[in-house]
Amino acid sequence: MDSWVVAMMLGASLFLGALALAAFLWGIKNGQFDDEKKMMSQVHFDDEKELNDLADQQKKREELKKKVYKPE
Amino acid sequence: MYEKIESAGSLNMSKVKCDHCHLEFSDSVMIHDEEYRFCCNGCRGIFHLLKDEGLESFYSKMGDTTLAPPTQQFEASSNFDTPAFYERFVTFDKEGLSQVSLVIEGIHCAACVWLNEKALHKMDGVIEANINYTNNKARITWDANTLKLSAIIDMIRAIGYNAFPYDASFQEVRANKERKEYYLRMAVATFAAMNMMWIAVAQYAGYFTGITQDIKTILNIAEWFLATPVLFYSGWVFYRGAYYGLRNRAVTMDLLVVTGSSLAYLYSIYITVFEKGEAYFDSVAMIITFVLFGKFLEVLSRKNAADTLDVMSKHIPSEVSIIEGESIRDVNVNEVRVGDIIRIRSGERAAIDGEVIAGEGNFDESNLTGESEPIFKRPSDFIISGTTSIDALLHYRATKDFAHSTLSHLVNLLENALSHKPKIEQLANRLSQHFSSTILFLAIGTFWFWYFWPHSFDRSLMVGISVIIIACPCALALATPVATLVGLALGAKRGILFKSAAQIETMAKASMVVLDKTGTITQGRPEVVYVTIHETFNSDILYSLAKASKHPISRGVAEYLERTYETVVQMLLEDVHEIPARGVVARVNGKMIVGGNALLMRDNGIEIESVSDKSLFYYTVDGVLAATYELRDLPKEKAFESISTLKKFGLRVVMLTGDHERAAVHVANEVGIDEVHSHLNPEQKATFIEMAHTEGHVVVMAGDGVNDLLALARADIAIAMGNGSDIAIEVSDVVLLNDSLTSLAEAFAISRRTYGLIKQNLGISLVYNSITIPLAMMGYVIPLMAAISMSFSSLLVVGNSMRSRWMYK
Questions:
Q1: Across the interface, do A64 and B118 touch by the CB < 8 Å criterion?
Q2: B254 in the same domain as B329
Q3: I want to staple B652 with a disulfide (CB 3.0 to 4.6 A). Which of B215, B501, B512, B668 is the partner?
Q4: Who among B128, B133, B214 is closest to A37 (CB)?
Q5: ipTM over 0.85
């Protein structure tokens, strides 16, 4: 067996693993695992309405930003 | 109490659930509102508010949990809008939005978190409300131009919770950041180490069955790729630790880890590049990963000093109302000068010492004195800062400014004591210093020995490095954290919370235990111990009379009646008057009924001759003495057994109390304590602990009230009773959730056992090393064996700790 096959397989699998690791690190940095109790229980309340609320909240923030930085 | 209600409900079908708080009550006492039932107006108000806001899905999310019915005793929320408050608690983010950190009280379930966040999000101007379910702390971002902070607080209160602000202090932010950093480092280390394992499997298989050099190099390069982030990113904490250690001229465990892994790493690169021998990359990753986990366990169980100060600041009012001529003005406590007239209303806490000039009412001084009875204050009496007005509305003249008042004096003393808390060096730290320098010395010696023997440089270096790797400090680093983790878990199962792992070891070394009397040894509330009935009377009437007062003595009598006559019911009394520090007077069916102490009897023209050191409650009907109740603060259940257990541990047991000597000695004899110090004020209690320190004792102090605070802060280990005051719990190192003395004895047993386990674990790793290190020095260690032995020693330590966990009941 050509040793390059081994090298390629190693490289590919490590790359894929590194991608997953990067996603996990992003999650930690983002504060998604900060509150273990909330993370486990709040899932039950997750539905379409929650997403809409989140979008509204985002909109509110954008509007406010505009208001605060209104040029004179 | 709730359990009782629920179990009764299952038997008795007439009980119904309140539609808001889900507690069950009999249908007749409920408020009927269309098809809904409420236990109180508070619940009804919240229910309708949630319905109007479209948040009624809260009730389906809540499931089976019950809520505490709302209380309506809040300080005015306008306090939250003052500039002084903003200056202290409100910060601004990059976009110019205001941010505040709040602690929300009353969160029981995930649905509560949901409700609070949703209710706040619905408010105009609130940009983000993020509540942490684990510690009930909230971070709220809002636009100060649209919305006042008081409106936010009002909303939280309106839906049945309460919020108070806290300084998201620098320390806390830093502690959280540190923890998060550890998560990141551990994630990287675990990922790399696990991947390294399957590459290593190929390496070892190749080692025994033959492998071509180019495949080996490929594997080595892959390992190199994986080991690099582990050593330099995850292992950065060790480099930092070693550096600070060296700067303080100390050889630490970190230094051993760093030298071992760095040398192995460099050596492996050399092997990989020159294509000869075996690389040690897997050992590098393993060492760092294992030791990093051990270090993380320590960080995790370290006590967070930040939280203590948060609760302290909750207890200090930041503003007072002062009267200037006709007008009342809210000023910052620091601006109050001696001579200013201060107004205090019911429910408010005094921030400044002073003398009453107008008005009267009861004060709760239990905070400072431990005295559970309300104190009646009238003009020319003194107000002590830190005490709370129960029903008094009065004006008083400041006799001291804020900085010199009792409360800030106490806080200063406390902060001082906390920062000077004695530290007892941990066994593992002491040991690791010697261990590290010995191993480094041996490794260097081995290298020179082999080099001059004579062997090649390669060979000598490899043997030298193998000494460091085989002496892998994993087992040593894991010995303490794993054992304490077992101890913490054992304690938590029994309602004993050790706030910091290091304290378990200190507690095991304790030689003296100091107990507060009221609330710690005794139950902290008087109970009826002896009854004399002079005339027959209707117990329902007495019960109603006793219920009319919140005084502990009356409550004790009411409880006694509930226990003895199971069917007592409250009746309607007329003209109920509570006379402070005396008792209660009322009228029923034209008869005059009086219940209270001897002074009250005398005022009503009834002569009482008997004198007793116990509290007495007399009951008269129309001027005729009907019954006498003797009440006493009884020791807790199993107090005697627990104290003899403590003595069996070889501890010197001492009781301290602010009470008078006779009562103190009586209780002490009952529970079997020989050494009693009575009549002590909080500072004297603390001095006593200091004295014990100078005698060389390691002191454990158990208490529950604010009057024990200073002593608690001075002690090596402070133990608070679970129903003690908030500050006492914050200051303490150990909390006994079920308040019993049995768990105090158990806490000692667990800490001693854990300490024994730590010693065993350290022993195992040392014995292990003393066998393997000579082998390594003689050059008998091949890479596979190094790796296996490393994991094996760690497994031994972890296994031993687990064994102890199963063995302990």
A1: no
A2: no
A3: B512
A4: B133
A5: no
